[in-house]
């Protein structure tokens, strides 16, 4: 994991591919993309001169599930992403170097590739007690994060932790764990939420940046549009059962066996933006709903604080007792209904009394 | 802009003058004033119908009917319920907008439900009087051509604000299905900047429905009660447009 800038070409040559094959590849790519005759030499030129993007991968308060997911990517294979596409200069979990040797790489990258490296952050910094709840390399993680963010080109916020806060930021959030975009405000941040994010989505984002040399188009919330612009529900293979009104009413009923919609079991698919229902997991084998369990909405903001994974409605705790919107609404409507009835009764009584009074008065 | 908050002298229609029209004699017919113009009445009933459809279908979207048997391709229950909800929502939005536009061209009563004259002491005094009337502390209500001040306050919050909130959150939720390139998302996507998790928007949309249920109950009760108890017509006014005064 040398910090020297390598081009794609040198990596390709190192992997035993001849210059002749390299040029064949460039011509073939240009032809298959329908580009003009000059494009082949341009592609070759770009691959020969463009440096691989240096990436620094840091870990804050997290569980490493993002890394675990990442290393299982099948398209592209993670070995291609890590060894060929990017120059992963620092990742304290999977790098060979350790201690001062490892920490020195940070300084080196920062000086050498000022404004050119990507800072990938897994997990988030806790801000309470001066950041003392997450010490990394002898100092609070938040300081390390701010230091490396200073000279980064862009930041990738891996997972629900870095994007939204996730479990360590769930109420009451004792360590004041804070998502990256609330700490670093002067750099472009790509949120790749999920707990963990899908492996292919992670490598897909990296591939996009290295291939096109720019950041992917982001939605309003800072997530790449290509993976997060639709809900699980929109592309769910059980959607026809939803439209038909066929639902699993309880676990292991006939409907569950038939693979009906899990909406009534609290599936968060209709409110969750992710690519699970299209890309799926483990090389496209399955995803939660396909396994018979509802989506828990792990890529959404504050998904730990929205009540049970098996309820459709959020719990509202402002009233002392935990109730959902429908329970509160029915109580309110019932109370108002009773009040209206009582008021009507009193009105009727009063009216009778007044009439009698008037009658007495007149006579 | 002098309608509801008019001091008592204005709020009280000049009964003598109206009565005098009936050839100087004491009026046999009861004095009437044209209050609600046709577009106001049409909007009222279309909105009322849409809101009822929206409440029923909305509840059924949140809490679907029992599972239907048979092939998925033979049934479209949720599809029809959602279609009815979306269609009624768009109708409500169009007629709510029409109603706002009419406030600019219609008579001064048509503007009443879009503001509360918070800065006028007299207005709050009369609100208090109305509250006392409802608390059985006043023997007689005052007479108003348009809404009484308490009704104006209730209409502004219970109808104008709540329905606007439901239309905005409703279109935001609808935009999720239409996609982020849709005009719905471009116009209403900012709702998700306030609540990044759409589940929260759903929750608020649910609460808004119940707030409207409460409004509708109070609205209908007050209309019926005032029709009987107060000194002016209420329900028939929303059909004919004319308010009849009796004493």
Unreliable runs of chain A? none
Fraction of helical residues of chain B: 55-70%
Strand-pairing-aware structural class of chain A: alpha/beta
Strands in their spatial order, largest beta sheet of chain B: 1-2
Beta-strand proportion of chain B: under 5%
Assigned CATH superfamily of chain B: Transmembrane di-heme cytochromes, Chain C
How far from one another are the termini of chain B?
27 Å
Encode the helix/strand succession of chain B as letters.
HHEHHHHHHHHE
* Biggest beta-sheet profile of chain B: 2 strands, antiparallel
Instruction: Report the structural category of chain B.
Output: mainly alpha
Describe this structure in words.
The complex is a heterodimer of chains A (363) and B (247). Helix content of chain A is 41%, strand content 10%. The model of chain A has no long low-confidence stretch (mean pLDDT 89). Chain A is of the alpha/beta class and 363 residues long. Chain A has helices at residues 8-14, 19-32, 39-49, 65-70, 78-85, 99-112, 141-150, 159-163, 180-183, 199-212, 225-228, 239-244, 254-258, 276-279, 325-362, and strands spanning 53-59, 86-91, 118-122, 135-136, 139-140, 154-158, 189-192, 315-316, 323-324. Chain A has three domains: 1-41, no CATH class; 52-228, NADH:ubiquinone oxidoreductase-like, 20kDa subunit (Rossmann fold, 3-Layer(aba) Sandwich); 233-312, Cytochrome-c3 hydrogenase, C-terminal domain (Cytochrome-c3 Hydrogenase, Chain A, domain 2). In chain A, helix 2 crosses helix 3. Chain B has a single domain, classed as Transmembrane di-heme cytochromes, Chain C (Fumarate Reductase Cytochrome B subunit), CATH 1.20.950.20. Chain B is built from ten helices and two strands, in the order H-H-E-H-H-H-H-H-H-H-H-E. In chain B, helix 3 (38-62) packs antiparallel against helix 4 and helix 6 packs antiparallel against helix 9. Chain B is elongated. In chain B, 29% of the residues are buried. The model of chain B is unreliable at 1-12 and 16-25 (pLDDT under 50). Classes of the chains: A alpha/beta (363), B mainly alpha (247). At the A-B interface, helix 12 and helix 15 of A face helix 4 and helix 9 of B.
């Amino acid at each position: 994991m040398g910090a020297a800038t390598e081009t794609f070409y040198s990596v390709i040559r190192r992997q035993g591919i001849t210059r002749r094959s390299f040029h064949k590849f460039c011509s073939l790519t240009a032809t298959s993309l329908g580009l003009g005759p000059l494009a082949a030499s341009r592609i070759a030129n770009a691959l020969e001169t463009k440096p691989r993007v240096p990436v620094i991968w840091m870990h804050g308060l997290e569980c490493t599930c993002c890394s675990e997911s990442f290393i299982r990517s099948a398209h592209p294979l993670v070995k291609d992403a890590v060894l060929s596409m990017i120059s992963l200069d620092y990742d304290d979990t999977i790098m060979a170097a350790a201690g001062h040797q490892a920490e020195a790489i940070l300084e080196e990258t920062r000086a050498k590739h000022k404004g050119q490296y990507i800072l990938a952050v897994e997990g988030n910094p806790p801000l309470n007690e001066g950041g003392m709840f997450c010490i990394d390399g002898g100092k609070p993680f938040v300081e390390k994060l701010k230091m490396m963010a200073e000279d980064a080109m862009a930041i990738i916020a891996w997972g629900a932790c870095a994007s939204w806060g996730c479990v360590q930021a769930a109420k009451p959030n004792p360590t004041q764990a804070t998502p990256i975009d609330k700490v670093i405000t002067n750099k472009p941040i790509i949120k790749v939420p999920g707990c963990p994010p899908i492996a292919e989505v992670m490598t897909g984002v990296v591939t996009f940046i290295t291939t096109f040399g720019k950041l992917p188009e982001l939605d309003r919330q800072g997530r790449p549009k290509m993976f997060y612009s639709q809900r699980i529900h929109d592309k769910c293979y059980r959607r026809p059962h939803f439209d038909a009104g066929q639902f699993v009413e309880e676990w292991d009923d006939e409907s569950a066996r038939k693979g009906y919609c899990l909406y009534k079991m609290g599936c968060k698919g209709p409110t969750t933006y992710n690519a699970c229902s299209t890309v799926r997991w483990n090389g496209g084998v399955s995803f939660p709903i396909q396994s018979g369990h509802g989506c828990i909405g792990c890529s959404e903001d504050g998904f730990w604080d929205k009540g049970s994974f098996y309820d459709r409605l959020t719990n509202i705790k402002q009233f002392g007792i935990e109730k959902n919107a429908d329970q509160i609404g029915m109580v309110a409507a019932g109370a108002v209904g009773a009040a209206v009835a009582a008021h009507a009764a009193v009105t009727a009584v009063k009216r009778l009394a007044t009439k009698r009074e008037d009658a007495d008065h007149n006579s | 802009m002098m309608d509801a908050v008019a001091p008592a002298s204005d709020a009280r229609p000049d009964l003598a003058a109206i009565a005098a029209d009936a050839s100087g004699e004491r009026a046999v017919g009861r004095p009437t004033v044209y209050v609600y113009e046709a577009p106001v009445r049409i909007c009222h009933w279309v909105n009322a119908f849409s809101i009822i459809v929206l409440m029923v279908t909305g509840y059924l979207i949140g809490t679907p009917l029992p599972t239907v048997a048979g092939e998925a391709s033979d049934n479209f229950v949720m599809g029809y319920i959602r279609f009815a909800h979306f269609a009624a929502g768009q109708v409500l939005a169009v007629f709510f907008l029409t109603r706002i536009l009419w406030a600019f061209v219609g008579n001064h009563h048509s503007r009443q439900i879009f503001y509360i004259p918070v800065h006028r002491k007299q207005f709050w005094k009369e609100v208090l009087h109305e509250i006392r009337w409802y608390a059985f502390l006043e023997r007689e209500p005052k007479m108003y051509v348009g809404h009484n001040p308490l009704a104006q306050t209730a209409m502004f919050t219970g109808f104008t604000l709540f329905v606007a909130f439901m239309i905005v959150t409703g279109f935001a939720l609808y935009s999720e299905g239409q996609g982020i390139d849709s005009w719905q998302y471009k116009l209403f996507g900012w709702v998700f900047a306030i609540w990044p998790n759409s589940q929260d928007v759903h929750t608020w949309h649910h609460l808004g429905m119940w707030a409207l249920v409460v409004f509708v109950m109070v609205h209908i009760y007050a209309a019926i009660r005032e029709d009987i108890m107060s000194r002016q017509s209420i329900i028939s006014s929303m059909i004919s447009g004319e308010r009849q005064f009796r004493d």
